[in-house]
Amino acid sequence: MNSTDARSYSRLILSALAFQPGQSLFVKGQPAHWEFIVTLAETAYELGAKYVQVEADHALLHRARIEHSRPEFLTYVPASRAADQALRLDEGWAIVSLKSPDDPAALDGIDAERNGIASRALANADYEYRRQVQSDRIRWIVASVPTQKWAAHVFGIEPDDEVEDRLWSELRRIVRLDHDDPFAEWTRLGKVLADRRSTLDSLALDLVHFSGPGTDLSVGLTDRSLWAGGTSIAQDGKEFFPNLPTEEVFTTPDYRRTVGRVSVTRPVQVLGGLVEGAWMEFEDGAVVRSGAASGGEMLERYFEVDERARYLGELALVDSTSPVFRSGLTYANILLDENAACHIALGSSYRKCIRGSEELSDEDYREAGGNTSTLHTDFMIGSPDVTVTATTRSGETIPIITDGLFALGD
Question: What is the rounded distance in angstroms from the CA atom of residue 294 to the CA atom of residue 297?
Answer without folding.
Answer: 8
